[in-house]
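queue> pop job 88
queue> type: inverse folding (structure -> sequence)
queue> payload:
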């Protein structure tokens, strides 16, 4: 049986494709010890509020730009900040068809006391996966026995090999970053997950894609979520550059 491994940073309430990637994998590795990217999407995302795109974020304590995700901590004001976020979600989505099912899940996640950014994000990902009936095993990069004196790209390959992977699966946004020849040289197959074009009812006259999973959950019951999770294609890349890129797509 082919063993598909994917590896991504632990994001807070990421888009649907993140959970498609987990569902399509035999093992999902959380890149908890990767460097935190200040302008990335690890601790922020988007919702629709009043029919308009609204960006939310989770405030962090001050930290160095070189710190890993699992070295960053949520602000001491996280409880107040999370309560404000819950208030906004209640106001924006109280008429959504799945509000009654989803709101208790969000409350449980956002009231979790953990302040380590990576652990808080991992908890949220695991809780949402449980709700979505995704049973893919998860591991952490920090738990693997990876040498410190090898390059970042070699560490990715070693992580997949240590996890027993035959295939490394990445979102299609990273297609230009990876060389299939480099993976093949290490006995690995490189594939990309391409999301189908999809839409669902929203509180907006025109569908807005790539919002937080919160928006998707509010409008789609569990059975429909199962269908949406399967709306993707796994593709192999055409031969291109011999350079490897970052883990993040």
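queue> result:
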């Amino acid at each position: 049986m082919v063993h598909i491994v994917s590896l991504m940073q632990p994001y807070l309430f990421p888009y649907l494709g993140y959970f498609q990637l987990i569902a399509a994998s035999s093992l999902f590795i959380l890149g908890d010890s990767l460097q935190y990217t200040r302008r990335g999407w690890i601790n922020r995302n988007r919702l629709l509020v009043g029919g308009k795109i609204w960006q939310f974020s989770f405030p962090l304590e001050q930290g160095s730009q070189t710190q890993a995700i699992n070295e960053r901590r949520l602000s001491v004001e996280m409880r107040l900040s999370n309560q404000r976020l819950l208030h906004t979600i209640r106001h924006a989505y109280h008429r959504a068809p799945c509000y009654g099912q989803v709101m208790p899940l969000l409350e449980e996640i956002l009231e979790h006391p953990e302040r380590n950014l990576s652990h808080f994000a991992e908890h949220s990902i695991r809780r949402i996966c449980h709700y979505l009936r995704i049973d893919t095993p998860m591991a952490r990069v920090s738990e693997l026995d990876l040498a410190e004196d090898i390059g970042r790209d070699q560490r990715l390959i070693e992580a997949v090999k240590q996890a027993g992977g035959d295939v490394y699966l990445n979102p299609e946004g990273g297609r230009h970053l990876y060389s299939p020849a480099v993976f093949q040289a290490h006995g690995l197959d490189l594939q990309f997950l391409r999301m189908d074009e999809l839409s669902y009812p929203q509180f907006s006259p025109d569908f807005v894609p790539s919002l937080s999973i919160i928006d998707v959950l509010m409008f789609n019951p569990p059975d429909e979520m199962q269908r949406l999770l399967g709306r993707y294609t796994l593709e192999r890349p055409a031969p291109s550059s011999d350079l490897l890129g970052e883990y993040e797509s």
